[in-house]
């Protein structure tokens, strides 16, 4: 019997991949394949956090005590990258996948979010509830949500300029800093705040206190070593923080923006699709960048099952790609590819499932992925 016929009658598995032309199983079935990998380990998690925290502190201290301006900048950039690594650990803790202990995850998550000045509880709502709960559903998932041509045309000139910058390929640092961190996380106004829970204020005060201590240490270090305070603040605070914002802005962009990835304007249509598989991109690298970023680029597996810890995401991603051949968007990273995506993915036609440029010209058709037909109303 052919592999296709086997796939039609047997439960999909590593030994029996699902034929590309067959309907996708329900998410519960897909998640069941990853259950063996959804096991956190406290010792491994704590060790990862301690290692990255020590590395971050060493880089920040280096910006104070080294005299070379070039080395100060390099250390500031590395500190920004390590900020991203630590944030990814906090990301797992916020998903309750970092360790098996819920209360410990909350503590470790808040610690891991300090270098990025991310209020834990606000990010929890925006990411876990909104982004993961409604991935690529316009009006709900706000992260890199594309505008329609009509929405873009209705914007004032200054806002159009900002949108062009955001989607130029050079804009992730500005997008995340302004649209996510400033507007939705760091003391957000009533319009952007998801309620008035006291913990939101407490977490903002926590990261503010950390920032004050961080800045005070940089000033004290500059005074003690007879160096420029301004230079110390720029290389020890501004450079790491801006690099971090650029890094997270880039990562969130390439995770869900792709010429073949669809966005949905209607929840009924979104519900019939398989957004946990079809709206994410697995970006691969020729070197070890994926491992250096704690495997956050194995993103399809993460969206299928958030309980899989980062140190098992590679195995989980390989499992999905083996059982679901030709179903997952896999791209090998290059800067040429990235800027081609930025060129094509400016606006979105939600009705026709197509990416547009800012003039409204179609640049790419995204893939329609439907799990089941829409229900048909029955008469009488």
From TrEMBL:
Domain Fatty acid desaturase stretches: 73-326
GO BP of this protein: lipid metabolic process
Keyword NADP: no
Top-level taxon in the UniProt lineage: Bacteria
One Pfam match: FA_desaturase
Membrane-spanning intervals of the chain: 45-64, 70-88, 204-223, 230-253
Official protein name in the record: Omega-6 fatty acid desaturase (Delta-12 desaturase)
Organism: Polynucleobacter meluiroseus
